[in-house]
Amino acid sequence: MGSDFQRIVAGIPTLPNPPLPDDWLASEMAERRLLLQHARINPGRRVVEVGSGAHALTTVPVAHAVGPQGRVVALERARWQHFREVVGASGLGPRVEALRADARWLPLSTEAADLALCVHGIRSLGHNGSCTQVLREMLRVASRIFLAETLPVARTPAQQAHLSMYGLREKVLLASTGRRDDLAYRPLAELCALVEAAGGVVEDRQTLDVDLPHALAYFPRATIDRVDDPADRADLSARWDGAFEQIRRYGEDHPPVGLVLASR
Ligand SMILES: C[S@@+](CC[C@H](N)C(=O)[O-])C[C@H]1O[C@@H](n2cnc3c(N)ncnc32)[C@H](O)[C@@H]1O
């Protein structure tokens, strides 16, 4: 991490979330920053971020990248729990406008931004029709878009451990919260096809090996108790045990990440 960015992240209080390691937030932000180095964000740019999430993990590095003259509109439909606390502690708040909205209908004018991006968010946007609608809106408000999304690829046991635990989340989240989220990761070709279906022209696609620890697939085993169907519950519990054992043995790392830059 650059020292200026490191100093900013060091000023953000750790948000304890056992059994995640204490530095989980700093580590996730470091990963987002690495991805964003491929988004061609210059100082002074206006950026729209779709699906900023509860912890502003992408918002802070984007706000850092746009510099004091740049602006970030951080758009999120539902999850704001620690957003203001994290952005406030980063000192970058004056560059950030938080907007509660559904990205399928962006409340922004055409050409409102130079770049619209979605980092680790495609998984949360729903199935193809809804993704395409969001991407079409992103391409309306900015002439360039950037996507970064984990790929369903493991090159190491620690990456496989992440995929094994992550693969349980969709069903368990739906049963425990009623929220359809954390859908299966998509291959890079599928991410590009979504962009093209929304009218975008893919300019650059690549797979990035980030080689950083990840800790966000884990969820407590007891959450599975809320799954109604006994056969599903038994299957998920057995798979959870297997995934947890992999994490215990090898740790959990970010799998490779697919990056897509596209224009109208
Ligand atoms: C997995 S989180 C990604 C958070 C963050 N970008 C990061 O780097 O970790 C995806 C977020 O997208 C939000 N989301 C899903 N569908 C949305 C929509 N249609 N409009 C706005 N936000 C949406 C979810 O609420 C969730 O907080």
Mean pLDDT over all positions: 96
CATH superfamily placement: Vaccinia Virus protein VP39
Ends apart, CA distance between termini: 32 Å
Described by strand count, sense and barrel closure, the largest sheet is: 7 strands, mixed
Helical fraction: 25-40%
Which ranges are low-confidence, i.e. pLDDT below 50, for 5 or more consecutive residues?
A: none
Query: What topology, given as strand order, has the largest sheet?
Result: 3-2-1-4-5-7-6
Strand residue percentage = 15-25%
- Rounded to the nearest angstrom, the radius of gyration is 18 Å
CATH topology: Rossmann fold
Tell me, briefly, the overall form. globular
Give the domain tally: 1
Class by helix and strand content? alpha/beta
What ligand species are in this complex? Answer: S-adenosylmethionine
SSE run:
HHEHEHEEHEHHHEHE
CATH architecture grouping: 3-Layer(aba) Sandwich
Count of DSSP strands? 7
For the record, what CATH class applies? Alpha Beta
Account of the protein in words:
With 264 residues, the protein is α/β, with parallel strands linked by helices. The chain is 38% helix and 16% strand. The protein contains nine helices and seven strands. It has a seven-stranded mixed β-sheet with strand order 3-2-1-4-5-7-6, with helices on both faces. Strand 1 (46-50), helix 3 and strand 2 form a beta-alpha-beta unit. Helix 2 crosses helix 3 (59-66) and helix 6 (157-166) runs antiparallel to helix 9 (230-250). The two termini are 32 Å apart. The model has no long low-confidence stretch (mean pLDDT 96). Residues 32, 51-53, 57-58, 75-79, 102-104, 119-121, 123-125, 134 line the site of S-adenosylmethionine.
